[in-house]
């Protein structure tokens, strides 16, 4: 008799790996993405079989998974190759805080631990609300520019924009945040950022080290409040650009800590 739930799962991105570990279901994972860093033990315990837009199809097949989990259109070709190889694939496409929580609920149901998933969601929601409540007490909200890549300049994706808002800031490119593809969030005119005058600049360059000095040296950016006042901060991509628990915990907390410090500065008068 076959197992009722999948017993051999390959996770092509980190957020499903992290979620399964948090649910206590890590025994089901037989392969992970090479970019996985959370939890750290996953890199030691599980074979790495994929990057983000590519995978070693033969290695995945050799693991004999009964389910492969992917994310977004960027893994559509990998998913198609695996489907042709006769493997069951589920590709999530979550882009918002609410959809991240729904992904966790769906994944919990897929592996037969809906109750544990509900408990994890409740814990994450409580943490988010704690930050939201703290942010509501701040005397002022900064304008925030979140840069996901530097050349070309790409602004933050939807869940990042939402987390900035929860943490107490206002995204200066809210109209771009809903664009799921990075190419549609390119800021064509670099001087558009100075025109929007962010008070804080966060950089998370997809695994490449953020360089505040390089940002500050951009032509026409000297008078940007964030540059003038030295509020340029790196948020590691591993805790903000993976749409999973890390973004709702460590990523959100780090955003809030920086925003709180900005807001609490006693020598800065509130804007009218």
In the sheet with the most strands, the strands line up as 3-2-1-4-5
User: Sheet with the most strands?
Assistant: 5 strands, parallel
Average pLDDT metric: 94
Name the helicity range: 40-55%
The N- to C-terminal Cα distance equals 69 Å
Unreliable residue runs:
none
Number of strands: 10
Helix and strand run:
EHEHEHEHEHHEEHEHHEHHEH
Rg, please?
Answer: 20 Å
Broad structural category: alpha/beta
**What fraction of the residues are assigned to beta strands by DSSP?**
5-15%
Oligomer: single chain
Tally the helices: what do you get? 12
Q: Which descriptor suits the 3D outline?
A: globular
How would you describe the overall organization of this protein?
This protein has 272 residues and is an alpha/beta fold. Helices cover 42% and strands 15% of the residues. The protein has 12 helices and 10 strands. The chain has helices at residues 14-22, 40-45, 57-62, 76-84, 97-110, 114-136, 158-167, 174-177, 192-196, 212-216, 225-228, 245-264, and strands spanning 9-11, 29-33, 48-50, 67-71, 89-92, 143-150, 153-155, 170-171, 200-203, 232-234. The strands form 2 sheets. It has a 5-stranded parallel beta sheet, with helices on both faces. Strands 6, 7, 8, 9 and 10 form a 5-stranded mixed beta sheet that branches. α5 (97-110) packs antiparallel against α6 (114-136), α6 (114-136) packs parallel to α12 (245-264) and α7 packs across α12 (245-264). The termini are far apart.
């Amino acid at each position: 008799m076959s197992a009722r739930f999948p017993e051999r799962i390959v996770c092509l991105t980190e957020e499903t790996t992290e979620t399964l570990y948090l649910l206590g279901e890590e025994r089901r994972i037989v392969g992970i993405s090479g970019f996985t860093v959370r939890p750290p033990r996953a890199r030691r315990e599980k074979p790495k079989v994929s990057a983000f837009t590519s995978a070693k199809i033969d290695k995945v097949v050799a693991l004999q998974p009964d389910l492969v989990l992917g994310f977004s259109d960027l893994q559509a070709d990998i998913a198609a190759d695996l489907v042709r190889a006769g493997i069951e694939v589920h590709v999530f496409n979550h882009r918002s805080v609410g959809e991240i929580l729904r992904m966790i609920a769906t994944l919990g149901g897929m592996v037969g631990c809906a109750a544990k998933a509900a408990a994890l969601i409740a814990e994450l929601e409580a943490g988010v609300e704690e930050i939201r409540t703290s942010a509501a007490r701040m005397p002022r909200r900064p304008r925030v520019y979140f840069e996901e890549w530097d050349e070309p300049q790409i602004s933050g994706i939807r869940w990042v924009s939402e987390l900035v808002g929860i943490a107490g800031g206002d995204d200066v490119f809210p109209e771009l945040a809903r664009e799921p593809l990075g190419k549609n969030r390119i800021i064509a005119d670099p001087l558009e950022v100075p025109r929007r005058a962010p008070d804080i600049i966060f950089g998370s360059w997809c695994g490449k080290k953020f360089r505040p000095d390089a940002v500050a040296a951009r032509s026409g950016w000297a008078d940007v409040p964030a540059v003038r006042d030295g509020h340029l901060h790196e948020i590691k991509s591993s805790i903000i650009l993976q749409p999973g628990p890390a973004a709702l915990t460590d990523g959100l907390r780090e955003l809030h800590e920086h925003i709180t410090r900005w807001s609490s500065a006693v020598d800065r008068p509130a804007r009218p």
